[in-house]
Amino acid sequence: MKLKVTPRDKKFLIAGSVMVGIYLLAVWVIQPIHLEQKHMDQEIQNKTQFIQKYHEILSQDSYYNAKKIANERTRMTLARKFFNETQPGLAAAGLQKIVRDFALQSRVKIEQVRVEKSKVIDQMPTVPISVTLRSSLRNLSEFIFRMENSEKFLVVEEITTQRINKSNPEELKTRLLVSGFIQDLTPRPDGPKA
């Protein structure tokens, strides 16, 4: 039994073959090329955006230079708040000088100054000194005001005041524990040596 193919059937077979060929061409050739082109376009767009952002950052060079200068000024201002000496003994001597100068300016009489053992507060080495002084209430408040507004960062950790003359309640004997901070900001595992 032979199959008879009519011219009309041939046209349908040819049209079907062409359609299957076009479909296979679209699926196996054109679609991968299109997806690859789409992927390449996306990569080009990403790199273009990266370059634009890079140029925006480079164009802000003056902004970053100004920030750098401001950071340097802040660093220098902070450095003035600490004692330059890295040895606790030398820093304690500097702190004693500052306290004596404030006492002279405030008309406060220092009776005793004792250097305490150095310690670390919030990972920053400090040198505490114990100061015993005699003064009036007004002069004492002026002395403490000067310490609070010092160029150096000083902390009054303890203050003990007692009246020493019952006839003159303004005359006080005061003990202060004052701490100054050392510029060496790197924490030591065993703490600073006294």
Structural class: alpha+beta
Radius of gyration: 41 Å
User: Tell me, what is the CATH class of the domain at 83-181?
Assistant: Alpha Beta
CATH topology of the domain at 83-181: Alpha-Beta Plaits
The unreliable regions are none
Task: Please provide the ordered H/E string of secondary-structure elements.
Answer: HHHEEEHEE
The coarse silhouette is: rod-shaped
What is the arithmetic mean of pLDDT? 85
Number of helices: 4
The major beta sheet can be summarized as: 5 strands, antiparallel
Determine the fraction of residues in helical runs and give it as a percent range. 40-55%
CATH architecture label name of the domain at 83-181: 2-Layer Sandwich
The CATH fourth-level homologous superfamily of the domain at 83-181 = Ribosomal protein S6/Translation elongation factor EF1B
Could you tell me the number of beta strands? 5
Strand content: 15-25%
End-to-end Cα distance, whole Å, is 116 Å
